[in-house]
Each structure stands twice: as C-alpha cells, then as structure tokens.
Fold this protein.
Amino acid sequence: VAPLGVIPLFEEIRSVPVRGVVAGVFVVALGVALTQRGLLPAATWDATVPAGYRCLASGPPGAILEIPYAFTQGHLYYQTAHGRPLLGGMLEDNPVFAPAEQAALRSDNTFVKALLEAPPGEDIDARSVTDADRQAVRDLGYAYVVLQVDAYRARAKLAGMAEAIMKVRLRSIRRSFDRYLGAPGYEDARVVIWSPWGVEAPCDASFPR
C-alpha cells in the first residue's frame, strides 16, 4: 500500500527543487531510523550453495533436520538446490506463525529436543531420548541431520572468539554429535550430514567438495 502513495509523491517532489531537498532529508531520516532499529544494513550471506547441500540433491528421499535451528534464512535458498523438505521455514523462529504441530515436535519429542537444545561442545544426554521418539521422527519422513558449521563460525566471530579457540570449539561440537548420531555419511568444511536411522548417505566420497 505504501509505495502507491509514495511514488506519486516523489513525482511531485522531483518537479520542485525545494521539495527535492525535503525528499532527500526524508530519505536520510528514514535510513537513520531503519539503522537504529537494526533493519539496515541488511544481513548478507554467501550465496554459494555449500557442497553438502548440493550433495543432498541425490540419494534416498527424506526430509532434513538442520542444526542449529533458525540460524538464517539462507537454508531456504539452499533448499532450491536439494529440494528436500526441512524442519522450519520462513518464520520458523516466530511462535505466532510456527504450526502447533511443529512447535510440539521441537518441544515434546526427546530426540529432536536433545539436538536443538544441545549445548555447543557438550555431550548430548542420550539417556533422555527414547527409541520411540527417535523412530517417530523417522516415521515423519526425516532421513538426515545436517550440521551447519557456518553457523557456529559466525557466532564465534560475533563473540570475538579467537580463531584457534573457535577451531577447538568446532571439533568439540563435532565429537558430541558423532557420539549421539554415529559416524557422518558426508562431511566437508561447511556441512556435516548424519543419518541416525541408517539411511544410505546422499552422496559418496567422490562427490566434489
């Protein structure tokens, strides 16, 4: 609705020099206001689809569960490369818009909850997870758990973590997930893929990283 009123306004402004100055002031003030609210500068991310997500374009069918949950909207772009269903969506971290069934899966299923709430680098408490809940996730059509390594790197940089410490933290995170999910079927510098239900790996070791 807003552009319909703004466009004619700017058409009038352009015809009068003084109004042009006013328009410039308005644009600057708008930019300052958006910046103060954290809306500018807009968030950016590497548009190159990681090899791991391209790997997911092949292999047995099945949805993916990505860790950490609701990192950025980039994974929706990556979905255009692999085409698999995933846990989450455009407003995945907004409780108002998230479907009740999805919220219940995240909060009530012990297998999913343990993954989503795992403290970075600490062992996941498998004792709290039931075999029935693990199988329930598989019955919903999930095949793979995907670790977005980029997310932990980004969070470490925001926290001012030194590179050496960040690498140690990443190795610790990997070990905790390996203990919980088993050996991964695929891994590279940006993505690690597990199949806790024994589904064949989506691609083999010859897949180009």
About this structure: The chain has a mean pLDDT of 83. The CA atoms of residues 61 and 143 lie 7 Å apart. The chain is about 50% helix and 10% strand.
